[in-house]
Amino acid sequence: MMRKLKMTLLIFTLIIGLILIFINPIQNFIIAHLSDRLNTTDYTVEDLQANLDKEADFDFEAVQSLSITEVLKAQASIEKLPVIGSIVIPEVQLQLPILKGVGKSALAVGAGTMKPTQQLGKGNYALASHYFEGKDILFGPLYRTNIGDAIYLTDLTNIYEYKLSVKEVIEATDVYVIEDTEGNILTLITCTEDGKQRLMVQADFVTQYPMIDAPEALSEAFSTS
Predict the structure, then answer these.
(1) CATH T-level topology, domain 2-223
(2) Residues β-bridged to residue 202
(3) Is 130 in the active site?
(4) Which is catalytic among the residues 100, 104, 130, 198?
(5) pLDDT digits over 129-169, tens only?
(6) In the beta sheet, which residues pair with residue 4?
(7) Is position 191 annotated as part of the catalytic site?
(8) Which candidate, 153, 164, 155, places its Cα nearest to that of 95?
(9) Residue 72 CB-density burial (10 A; 0-12 exposed, 13-18 middle, 19+ buried)
(10) Among 102, 136, 171, 205, which one is most buried in terms of CB atoms within 10 A?
């Protein structure tokens, strides 16, 4: 009996150890898979507009570190997530769905809008997403961006082009950076490695193209997984 008990405890300890070793790779794989599934090419303009009208959480000050539990919840409710567009940064191979609000499930799979009334191509369009050290998922690729990089967003009606102009670390309390300005800009926010500060990337609005008349390379950028 004692021998069986020891063997059971050994097996249990081994299983727990394996879970701890592989939980992060599993979580990262699920996040990448979910982000890919929410590609806007699988939606219609009407779908995105309907999602834009849904209720959403905009309390970004309450956002916590992402856990495997939240990732699994997002997977379970993927059909209900309010996708309203996509963002692509070709230079760093970033391609993510844009979702309304900064709810836990939204930020588990893509970039969330930080203000309820913001509009693409107008004012200060602000997005937030999580960062995982050394991982090219969610907003991790922002750390590899450079001044001058092109950033594209779409709502399936138009493609909006921005040019990266500011990249700096700010304090978590510097919420003024998402306030509207005189010009039209894009603001992207993610955590620093220690989680105490934020990496902010801002880009100036350049132009917009009707989706049906956009350069072929841009249209392909949003359809490539």
Answers:
(1) Sortase; Chain: A; (2.40.260)
(2) 166, 187
(3) yes
(4) 130
(5) 988 766 778 899 999 999 999 999 999 999 999 999 999 99
(6) none
(7) yes
(8) 153
(9) middle
(10) 102
φ, ψ (nearest 5 deg) of residue 107: -75, -10
Residue length of the chain: 225
pLDDT tens digits for range 81-129: 899 999 999 999 999 999 999 988 888 889 999 999 999 999 999 999 9
CA–CA gap between residue 197 and residue 172 (Å, rounded): 5
Kindly state the helix (H) or strand (E) to which residue 24 belongs, with its residue range: helix 2-37
Return the CA Rg of the chain: 19
Mean pLDDT of 191-216: 88
- Active-site residue identified among 84, 189, 191, 201: 191
CA distance 15 to 8: 11
In the chain, what are the domain boundaries? 2-223
Model confidence at 7: pLDDT above 70: no
Is the Cβ–Cβ distance between 161 and 209 less than 8 Å? yes
Q: What would the two tokens of residue 130 be?
A: 């999580």
